[in-house]
Amino acid sequence: MATDYRPMWKSIGIDLKAHDQLLQALPPTYKDVYMDQENRPDGMEYFDFVINEIHGLRIQELQGHKAKGGKVIGAFCVFVPEEIVRAAGGICIGLCSGIKIGAAQAEKVLPRNICPLIKSFMGFKLAKVCPYFESCDMVVGETTCDGKKKAFEILHDYVPVHMMETPQMKREKDKSLWRSEVQDFLIRVEEFTGNKITFESLQRSVKEVNEKRKALLRMADLRKNNPAPISGKDSLLIEQIAMYDDVERFTAKVGELCNELENRVKEGKGVQGSDAPRIIVTGTPMAIPNWKVAHIIESSGAVIVAEELCTGLRYFENIVPENGENVNQMVSDIAGRYLSINCACFTPNEGRMEKLVQLAKEYKADGIIHCSLAFCDPYLVEANRVEKVLKENGIPLLKIETDYGQEDSGQLITRIEAFLEMIK
Ligand code: BJ8
Question: Which residues form the pocket of ligand 1, taking CB atoms under 6 Å from any ligand atom?
Fold first, then answer.
């Protein structure tokens, strides 16, 4: 018999009626998008289970951690150093959501024309439908884009927010600003958890988070093979789950999956035929359960081989050096690793252009699909630079602007199918 989690949800302040509506929306989508795929690796069973228990078991674990005096810290950006939270005995979870929920409540405090990711996280908080949000003792905001940084001021009325100032450039003075922000974050986390971060605890957490990244990098590497041993949709799902699952368990499960994928590669077994167009997706993050574009691309006969997204490579490429000799040096190494992320909030952002060209070669991509959320100025404007550089390098590009609704699905199918036809 399925566990009844309602008493737990009620105890953390969830609006049960609104929450029921949210849960009802999820399972049919998941079945259509995921369970009907052919040639899925057996190792996906664990990740299906995680989704099935998305508001159940993991929330129970978070509550268990809190009952023992532990803290849960939420983040909205891949710039927030998970290593530091873990080194102080806390759990760090990603809070971005990819579903239109609580829009009416969110629009009471935000303009209507704001990116769906921001509207969604505000809606989740105001509608009290997200047990992850309600489990957080503190959330960490950043000054990446204007919409987010101003939304965090409002969010602070409902939950304690610690702000990190992310620089907009990558000069030496920006690097030292960011280093000091990471150092301040460490102090704030120590105060908040009541736990001192030691050399040993930081060294251990750096290793643990690196192991998670290495497992994801191994999976990414295996997708360079033709035929690809795993679908882009399944890979995206794993990358989304990486942000809130237990680090060590997740790392082990990705490792087991990669063993299976390695065998598939040896046997020449793939999710699609070796003639399927190979696509790289780039742009704004695709938070759970935003699988719309990935589903359309792969249902149109292509295979996604990499995601140049924050729910993708930007989250796990580059690891933190593990040979730091003291806490100070490790803080600098952590800051350095995070500042190498190529978010469109930076200007200029040449690293992202170079990365895309390099990825297209490494993954033998036939084309790139640039997918931006509506009203996201950084990515929508930067699409111009991406287009210019890819054109110079002879890499076909399709630019898409979308949101969390399904209304534009028909139009997206037409455009994506035409693009795939063109690059075949
Ligand atoms: S490092 S991409 S996770 S900021 S989509 S809220 S940018 S208007 S999410 Fe992001 Fe960090 Fe950058 Fe990655 Fe603003 Fe654009 Fe909305 Fe965005």
Answer: 77-79, 115, 117-118, 144-145, 147-148, 284-285, 310, 341, 343, 345, 373, 376, 378-379
| Shortest-distance Cα residue to atom 3 of ligand 1 | 77
Three-class DSSP category at 9: helix
The domain 9-28+53-202 having CATH identifier 3.40.50.11890: the answer here is: yes
SS3 for 232? helix
For ligand 1, mutation pick of 139, 140, 293, 345 (most atoms within 8 Å of CB): 345
Q: What percent of the chain shows pLDDT beyond 90?
A: 95
Identify the burial level of 267 via C-beta atoms within 10 angstroms of its C-beta, where 0-12 means exposed, 13-18 middle and 19 or more buried: exposed
Question: For the segment 349-385, what is each residue's pLDDT rounded down to a tens digit?
Answer: 999 999 999 999 999 999 999 999 999 999 999 999 9
* Burial zone of 325 (CB within 10 Å; 0-12 exposed, 13-18 middle, 19+ buried): exposed
**How many angstroms is it from 144 CA to the middle of ligand 1?**
7
Q: Is the pLDDT of residue 323 over 90?
A: yes
Ligand 1 centroid to residue 76 C-alpha, Å: 8
Dihedral sign of CA atoms 272, 277, 281, 287 in order = negative
Is-cis flag, bond preceding 41, omega within 30? no
DSSP annotation of 272 reads S
Enumerate helices (H) and strands (E) in the chain, giving the number of each: 19, 8
Query: Which residues make Cβ contacts (< 8 Å) with residue 283, sequence separation at least 6?
Result: 308, 309, 370, 371, 372, 373, 379, 383, 400
Q: How far apart are CA 232 and CA 353, in angstroms?
A: 21
